[in-house]
Amino acid sequence: EELRMSKPNNFDIQSTFCVLCGRTDDCPEKYGEKRTYVEYNLTFHYYCLLMSSGIWQRGEEDEGVDGFLFTDIRKEVNRAAKLKCNICKKKGASIGCVTPKCKRSYHFPCGLQRECIFQFMEDFRSYCWEHRPVQKFMDKEPRGASQCTICLDLVEHIPAYTVLKSPCCKNAWFHRECLQYQALSAGIFFFRCTVCNSKEKFQKEMLRMGIHIPERDASWELEENAYQDLLHCYQHCDVKRCLCKKGRDYNEPDSKWEIKRCQYCGSRGTHLACSSMRSWEQNWECVECRSIFAKSGKYRKRKKRAFATSEKTDGTPCLLEEPPPKSPRQSSGSPRSFLLQSPKIMYQNLSPCSHLELPASDRVTISLSPVMSKRSWSLRHERLREQRREVCNILKELKVQVKTKTTRLNVNAEDIWSSALKGFRQRIFSPTNTIEVNFSNCKNRSKTNTSAASKYHFFQLLMLHLQNSSLFEGSSGKNLSLDFQAVKENLYFEAGKMIAVSLVHGGPSPGFLSKTLFDCLVYGPENVKPALEDVADVDVAQTIKTIKYANSLSSLQSTIQDCCEFLAAAGCLRPVTALCDKNVLVNDILIYHVIKRITVPLESFRQGLETLGVLEKMQMHPDAFSSILCHKPERLSAETVCDLFTIHSSSEVNKVKGADFWMGYLQDVESGESVVTLEDILLFVTGSCYIPSIGFDPEPTIKFLHISYPIGNRLLNCLELPITQTYQQFKNKMELTIRNTLRVERE
């Protein structure tokens, strides 16, 4: 045992013995994550530690190993070294049966082989093969076999360790191994009976019978860009004879070669010219959808209810050519299939008792299709949204410091950094004053524009410049760089100050700081452990990789010899006598390059962020501020824009009807069936194409009035919308006004 506890000469994570069970296996599904702590000379399987009988979590969650203190782990290893396993007869048996008077002890892997049961709940009990809990089988229950609903193989109806019965369904039987893999994949939020979908009763029984259900999100929700391929909008002409010389995939908006999708399924398309369509407003249905409606007898009815017919101007119907049969190679269109439906279908089918007619207040709550919540928005996105709402409230508290006294910044958009630096450093500038921005053209002729729109645009340009400036390095998540000239000019302080002022005064979420830099600001650099991906310098990263993946002592010493000058300059040059020394060396290089090297810029940047009390709030609410500083802003969606506005109307009928048209238009815009974007709509109303971290002041509202065209009142953030008879009239007026207004502004 002493040999097993001693530090091996050639330390390697993959081949190190677990100090509790003595095995080298690295199988996270069976034994839990294999963890190595070089500084404490400890390697163990997580489940071996979790199930050990003589250890408890005496520390906080962030202390030791999830609350297990290293001193306690060492004591447990010493205790287990005196106990012999009743299965393999070797020492180190740290797990004992909890049944009174039972003296059996065993290793975790040995217990699995001998069919012991380990309960991953409450106080993590373990039962030996003789005293383990069993499921009750009724005498009347039919014997035989049925299909396991997970692997679809046969499972025998027998009271055995390898077979488990559902507590909620009489005829649901599973292999234990299948259930365990299902639980590890689904996690606590999605693990449930595969037959009746019962969750609480099912999980309780499975935990009792030794199934481990991890407290995390499902594996398919944690996968990066898991649904990315579903976000592509279908762009392909499917008619038999495509007339476009540039091919079936060519799409040119606002021309006869623009692709129109089927208004019902959204998974078929045609060029306007290929189906003799003279206008984008004309509806088009693919042959499959038309044949379905024709068989059901509803096709004529739907055609009559359409806002725009697919007839030619002379009154003769368009003869559409039949597209080829559907084939697997083609995309199924957007995952948000409800967005591809025409609003006339979505809203004409609303019952008179629709929830839109029963508002709790002036706010109209409109629920989007369940497709979005089930497919696109995971729990992770929901948590991110909650954290951003929390940040919004915190920043509003900080904004109380801002006075009505104004400070005007004269800004040249072509040199945003110099203009901002000059403005922030002027003697009369105070972060507690209301900021007004005046853009001037290249001929220095002032364009008077003191509206919020100029301020929004200024902060957007400023954050974009900072992200790409020499003050930061890295691709997506950025760390501070070491720029001696910037240190000399105190630019790191100014950068921190600008970010703080931007957040409180209505700027966008920066979203480009790395988690390592954020943790240094919040917890202090001495408490942060950087990773290899934090190194932006390609040569330094390659040197670290070479050291990290050296597989022999001679290759490690050779690599160190080649880069000894660099290591000496970093203060990391040290004698290497064993392969395991490479881990300490890699850690030292990372700490030097990512943290110690930029100590002065980091301290200066921290002082800048103290402006208006932003850093203090970051340290009090780290998770919330991480959502806006380390994550890119959420892309605008129909749901987001809808939730942003409060609807007011003199008439309840006009409110409900107008809300229908408004939501339908947002969905058309999001699905690409409009000449404007959601950013254009936001810009038209508020003067900003993004939602500030602090939110809008005043909050955006909508009024339905008897007016000819929509009006965007940026002073009040109010969108005045016309009351129209049909959705098509509403959409046409929105398109015309927003597009022309923004075009004139840009010109």
Largest sheet: 4 strands, mixed
Total strands: the figure is 20
Oligomer: single chain
How many helical stretches?
29
N- to C-terminal distance: 80 Å
CATH class of the domain at 401-633: Alpha Beta
The CATH architecture classification of the domain at 401-633 is: Alpha-Beta Complex
Given as residue ranges, the uncertain stretches (5+ residues, pLDDT < 50) are 1-14, 298-377, 442-450
Tell me about this structure.
It is a single chain. By secondary structure, this protein is α+β, with helices and mostly antiparallel strands. Among the domains are: 34-127, 2-Layer Sandwich (Herpes Virus-1); 145-221, no CATH class; 401-633, Hect, E3 ligase catalytic domain fold (Alpha-Beta Complex), CATH 3.90.1750; 638-745, 2-Layer Sandwich (Hect, E3 ligase catalytic fold). Helix content is 38%, strand content 9%. The protein is built from 29 helices and 20 strands. Helix 26 (638-644) runs antiparallel to helix 27 (652-670). The chain is globular and about 90 Å long. Residues 304-336 are annotated as: Disordered. GO terms for molecular function: ligase activity; ubiquitin-protein transferase activity; zinc ion binding. Residues 15-132 form the PHD-type domain.
